Amino acid sequence: MNDGHSASEAAMITVCPQGPLLLRGDFEIVDAEGQSIEARKGPVALCRCGGSAIKPFCDGTHKLMKFEQRK
Amino acid sequence: MEPSSAKVAQALFELAADDAGPSVSKFIQRKATAGQAREFLILKSIYQLKEADPHTWAIPKLEGRAKAAMVEIQADEYGNGQLPRMHSELFRQTMKGPGLRDDFGAYVDRIPAVTLAAVNMISLFGMHRRLRGVITGHLALYEMTSSIPQAAYARGFRRLGYESPVTDYFDEHVEADAVHEQIAGRDLAGGLAEFEPDLVPDILFGAQAAAAVDALAGAKYLDAWEAGRSHAGAGVAA
User: Going from the N-terminus, what domains does chain B have, and what CATH number goes with each?
Assistant: First the structure.
């Protein structure tokens, strides 16, 4: 949560089990050329399964792919 | 069930994956006529034009991690205070695409009872402190069954010739709800379960109730559309 203090603005990445990487705080996403990739305001989910149609962002496809669910 | 955040999130994700409700989204994506797509928007409008409001009632009824998670999700729903990004406002743009009225409740007399029941149920859950577990489970299920259908709706409306800003609502939800389902599962529902373990059955009930009632509504729409009938009253879908 952003309460206006620098400590809470540091980027934090949460690895979601069987799901995406959740980004919060201050961050910038750039492509291989260093060009900024526009992200939505607020927390962002980055694709970790490779199946998203809107990469680098997550679109929930990991659920269809049973990502990390195979025993 | 062990009331840990991870276990509760996993149980909710499994429940959402098992949700065998009729696929309105696949119908809209592949088959719906322009009239049926228009009718689909009318049916959705009774919730989407006030999207997020009934879940917001739960905020003062929660504490700690669950409250923070609910605020994080709801702030996003309200466009972080920016009117054009507010989800209900995005849906207003979608309604305007096929020339529909965008004032809340304009079509209420044409909405079938089962659809009204689904919406009233959220208000019931949101308004009572004793149902705080139920409302969090309801929101979690909603978020967990959203991003993939929303992508199908977006494709359906593009197939029918619509583009931005009509499709913005669906596109925004593909991305937003892929975020929200993670927060809703672990921090909101899971956070509440760790704080109040006795509420785990309520959390699961809320999720099951959301799935059950929406499946009833979806079955009614699909029956009518597959049979070539309208569901929001004669003339609306024409």
Answer: 5-226 (1.20.910.10)
